[in-house]
Design brief:
The structure is a single chain. β10 and β11 form a beta hairpin. The protein has one domain: Clavaminate synthase-like (Double-stranded beta-helix). The protein is built from five helices and 16 strands. The strands form four sheets. Strands 1-2-3-4-14-6-16-5 form an eight-stranded mixed sheet, with helices on one face. The chain has a three-stranded antiparallel sheet with strand order 13-7-15. A three-stranded antiparallel sheet has the order 9-8-12. Helix content is 17%, strand content 26%. It is α+β, with helices and mostly antiparallel strands and 302 residues long. The two termini are 27 Å apart. It binds succinic acid (SIN). The site of succinic acid has 9 residues, from β15 and β16. Succinic acid binds next to β15 and β16.
Length: 302
């Protein structure tokens, strides 16, 4: 299989617009995706800067904006997020900042051994009718090492499948369910086909989505399944589906598809859930990690 052109445009760049009010430096993280960016301050970013950020996200899928102000406030942070789209509020999570219900806190104390939020390959909220679009994460207190976020480029994962396999998956849907909430999707005995009649409450936590997804802004195609929430391919038996999904998870999570983005103090990261999956690594026992997350509502996948 020929792959030589897939990585080509991802070289270090300055911002394309020479007349812009900022000067951006971009360092790619890996051949697959990801970039560290300096020169975009989330408290002063103007419309040209937001457009530049979208351009960077289309290319790199996840970008870490370095050198943010150490005194970044929750208000500034939420205002920045609101410039990227409609902020979602999670009705099931107690907000750490009462005035900003849209900000979710992901805080692990140094001695915490409980569930690691995001510690499974996933794209945000794919069990929803409108899964996550962009997600923003501010590392307010990050460990000196460890606690990195892993990503997989799902556009690359789709592109590098064989034509025959793509043909089989194209036009087919997969059921996504919020199994992470302790719910099992109410489907199929062994051998049944996935055609599910959800009760009302399940409409909230399980939805079918196309396996090949088209990005609404770039038109790029992505593989849209993930290990945390994708439970069964429509029209396949449970056994068939399990085998195909496991292959797709393994393919997308193979090293050449992935990038490991390393946190530093004063960093705000943005990623595009339409084109990626991610995994929060819990390897920082003994250190505190204090993150604040904003979710931008996405669209119904097509
Ligand atoms: C998440 O999955 O939203 C959290 C990612 C992280 O904490 O690195």
């Amino acid at each position: 299989m020929s792959m030589q052109n897939i990585w080509a445009p991802r070289t270090p760049v300055q911002n394309a617009d020479a007349a812009a009010s900022f000067s951006v430096e971009v360092s790619p993280v890996a051949g697959s995706m990801g970039a560290y960016v300096t020169g975009l301050d989330v408290t002063t970013i103007d419309d040209t800067g937001i457009a530049e950020l979208h351009r960077l996200l289309h290319t790199y899928k996840a970008v870490m904006l370095r050198q943010q102000r150490p005194n970044l406030s929750f208000g500034d942070y939420a205002s920045f997020g609101a410039r990227l789209g409609e902020l979602a509020v999670d009705p099931f999570v107690e907000p750490p900042i009462a005035e900003h219900p849209e900000i979710m806190g992901l805080i692990r104390e140094a001695d915490d051994t409980s569930y690691n939020f995001g510690g499974d390959w996933h794209s945000d909220g794919t069990y929803l009718e409108r899964p996550g679009g962009l997600t923003v994460l501010w590392g307010k207190d990050v460990p000196p090492f460890g606690g990195d976020t892993l990503f997989a480029n799902m556009e690359l994962a789709w592109e590098t499948l064989s034509p025959a396999f793509k043909q089989m998956l194209d036009g087919r849907r997969c059921l996504h369910a919020a199994t992470g909430l302790g719910q099992k999707a109410p489907i199929t005995r062994k051998g049944d086909y996935a055609s599910v009649n959800f009760g009302q409450e399940l409409d909230r936590i399980a939805h079918f989505h196309p396996i090949k997804r088209t990005h609404p802004e770039t038109g790029q195609r992505a593989l849209f399944v993930n290990q945390a929430y994708s439970v069964q391919i429509e029209g396949c038996t449970e056994d068939e589906s399990a085998g195909i999904l496991q292959f797709l998870f393994d393919w997308a999570q193979s090293p050449a598809m992935t990038a490991r983005l390393v946190w530093e103090p004063n960093t705000v990261m943005i990623w595009d859930n339409r084109a990626t999956t991610h995994y929060a690594i819990a390897d920082y026992g003994g250190f505190r990690r204090e993150m604040y997350r904003l979710a931008i509502t996405g669209e119904v996948p097509e």
